[in-house]
Amino acid sequence: MKRPLRFALMLALAGSLASPALADRDRDRHRHPHHPPHEHHSRHDHKRHEARRYCPSGTIQRGLDCLHRDSIRRDARRYPRVGDVLRPADYRRISDPRAYALEPGGNWNYYRDDDRIYQVDSSTRKVMAVLQLLQAFSN
Questions:
Q1: How many Å apart are CA 119 and CA 58, to the nearest integer?
Q2: Which interval of the chain is the signal sequence (predicted)?
Q3: What distance in Å separates the CA atoms of residue 120 and residue 88, rounded to the nearest whole number?
């Protein structure tokens, strides 16, 4: 009786040790032979990942920057603000400030574009004040 019991125990032990090795018969093959591996990827996927590599979702890459869609619309026409340095070559200088009811003289000059007047410090070229043309005529 000892021999059949010993044989049964060895057979059970061998079966339990071999079962993990036999469980994955297709370990070297793809599980579905009619679908080759990576078929669900497009040949252009690397370009999609390349574009998203630098900018998080919800932003658009403009040059080297990632900008939110709202900021692109908002900065479509950017006007100089108080404290910005004005490039005088881009604006027309007002030679007679009294024609616009502005205070003449001082250490500043006036420049204008289509609908704004800029009071600019003559030494640093920084914008000291921004006036709408309607505000200049309403005084």
A1: 38
A2: 1-23
A3: 9
Q: Which residue stretches of the chain are H helix?
A: 2-23, 45-54, 69-74, 133-138
Which token pair is 28?
């070297």
The predicted-structure confidence for 13-69, as pLDDT tens digits, reads as follows 887 777 666 666 555 555 555 655 555 556 555 555 554 456 777 777 776 677 777
With contact defined as beta carbons under 8 Å apart, do 8 and 16 qualify? no
Q: Which amino acid is at 33?
A: P
Judge whether 130 and 116 are in contact, CB under 8 Å.
yes
Return the half-sphere exposure (C-beta side, CA atoms, 13 A cut-off) of residue 132.
Answer: 3
127 close to 117: Cβ distance less than 8 angstroms: no
